[in-house]
Design a protein that fits this description.
alpha/beta, Spore Coat Polysaccharide Biosynthesis Protein SpsA, Chain A, 2 domains, 6-stranded mixed β-sheet, 5-stranded mixed β-sheet, 16 helices, 22 strands, elongated, disordered N terminus
């Protein structure tokens, strides 16, 4: 049977394939990869059957728990491992403060290479320890985590997402931590859950002098641990949007490409001026040839707003206009904004900038809404056919807290795109071979290849108008241009890992 992915360009050109069918075909290819990857991991795990692992399990339970069926089921699942647990340590959770102190002391004295946590109600697949041991041996990761099955639904965790981990401990109990990454460090926490979360952050984030955290964190198979706790109680009982500091001398250069769109530009600049930025900024408008009347209006607007106005007659090329704006920028941070936007949040710039300034920070974007409050952008995913997650869905459709918590994605939209100035230079700016489509995806792919992460802060909200009024209709000529740009994108990034939101959806090129 011919490869459906290779047939896509031909089928789309003939008009026999719609965008939705295209997405379904790629999802099937994705699912096939996951099945083969799971088989590969199980094959590696078999090498450890009948052997003792170098993994300690820390059991957190009260005295009353020890007589419960949940507790017995958890211990039974650990005793039945095909690769045996080296040792089970018990921490009594009856006194929260004492348990926290005891746990901190225990971790500092562990001799096992890896350790993990368990609570009554956790039920581990018989291959769980052997899989973790195999992945530890083959990757030497500082932390390894898996998906979980909760009492009410499957808990699909994202592929390693440092910005998500900074906001809540999505790793849960199904995570093994390398002892050496934390046992000689100060571990803080007011209670057990805080302590465990800080352990995960310490092993996955704080020790990384190298921005490429991917090599230190490994996400593996789904369904290896089941828990009796409900999904929301397990994963979203303690969440926050992290606020990172910005310095007094940090400056954001807001670069706005625009032509003959004075009404939208006025609305955008007014919204910028009417909301607290949280930090210093400058505005640069790049105009590629507005008519004289609009040119005069925009020039007066920029003078009144203290903005720089660059007028350069040329064919529309979003990438080139952004690069021209960058040449005039003096900020250590750049924010590229479409002119059809409206700022809705205070402290919006400092929240975006703080994330962009993190060691792993690549491109950072915001939650963009249509005027009817439905979602325009919350992150870009979809493999080698990138698309907006939850597009046109109500903002209230909060799937896995995607519209409330920061998440890292394969790419973010160029309509609101913040990046450090020096990092933008390292990437050689936007590639001008992509005048309209995929310029943002191309730059995000470059950042990912360099080891950086692209993230969305949903606590920063803007309206996005033009796409809403234009609607979802796409002409065949536009599709042909998009397909040509997509082919160029894939050619430029042959080694790029195209992945979805979770391990289950992940698909990797050239496996």
């Amino acid at each position: 049977m011919p490869n459906p992915i290779k047939l896509l360009p031909r089928l789309i050109k003939s008009g026999r394939l719609t965008i939705s069918i295209k997405a379904k075909l790629e999802l099937r290819a994705c699912q096939r990869y996951i099945r083969s990857e799971n088989k590969r991991i199980i094959s590696l795990a078999k090498q450890y059957h009948g052997r003792e692992s170098d993994i300690a399990v820390i059991m957190l339970a009260s005295e009353n728990d020890k007589t419960s069926e949940n507790y017995k089921r958890t211990i039974a699942s650990l005793d039945s491992q095909k690769c045996s647990v080296k040792k089970i340590y018990y921490i009594s959770s009856d006194n929260e403060q004492k348990a926290t102190d005891d746990l901190r002391k225990l971790i500092k004295g562990l001799s096992e290479t890896y350790f993990m946590f368990a609570r009554p109600g956790d039920e581990f697949d018989t291959d769980y320890i052997s899989v973790i041991q195999a992945m530890a041996h083959n990757s030497e990761a500082d932390i390894i985590y898996t998906d979980e099955s909760c009492s009410d639904l499957e808990a699909d965790k994202p592929i390693f997402s440092p910005d998500t981990l900074s906001g809540h401990d999505y790793m849960g109990h199904a995570a093994a931590i390398k002892t050496g990454s934390v046992n000689n460090k100060d571990i803080f926490g007011n209670n057990i859950d805080d302590l465990i979360w800080n352990i995960h952050k310490l092993s996955a984030l704080e020790l990384r002098s190298n921005v490429n955290c991917k090599e230190n964190v490994r996400a593996v198979m789904a369904g290896l641990i089941r828990t009796e706790r409900p999904f929301r109680d397990e994963f979203f009982s303690h969440t926050e949007n992290p606020v990172y500091p910005v310095a007094k001398d940090d400056l954001v250069s807001i670069i706005i490409p625009s032509k003959d769109n004075a009404e939208c530009l006025i609305r955008l600049i007014r919204s910028i001026k009417s909301h607290k930025p949280g930090m210093r900024y400058e505005i640069i408008v790049v105009d590629n040839g507005s008519i004289e009347a609009n040119k005069s209006t925009v020039n007066d607007l920029c003078k009144a707003a203290g903005a720089r106005y660059i007028y350069n007659i040329m064919p529309f090329n979003f990438s080139k206009m952004c690069n021209i704006g960058k040449k005039s920028a003096t900020g250590n941070l750049l924010l590229f904004l479409n002119d059809d936007m409206e700022v809705l949040s205070d402290n919006w710039l400092s929240l975006l900038a703080g994330t962009a300034l993190r060691p792993w920070g690549g491109a950072v974007s915001a939650k963009l809404l249509y005027p009817d409050e439905s979602i325009q952008h919350i992150g870009v995913t979809g493999g080698s056919f990138p698309g907006h997650l939850m597009s046109h869905k109500p903002d209230e459709d909060n799937i896995e807290m995607r519209t409330e918590l920061p998440y890292d994605y394969p790419a973010v939209t160029g309509a609101c795109f913040m990046i450090r100035s020096e990092l933008f230079d390292d990437c050689n700016g936007f590639c001008e071979e992509f005048p309209t489509d995929y310029n943002d995806i191309d730059l995000c792919a470059t950042l990912t290849e360099m080891g950086y992460y692209c993230s969305v802060r949903p606590d920063v909200v803007l309206y996005h108008y033009e796409s809403y009024s234009r609607g979802k209709t796409i002409s065949r000529n536009q599709i042909r241009k998009q397909m040509a740009a997509r082919r160029k994108l894939v050619k430029r990034h042959k080694k790029y890992t195209w992945y979805g939101l979770t391990y289950r959806e992940m698909v990797k090129k050239n496996v």
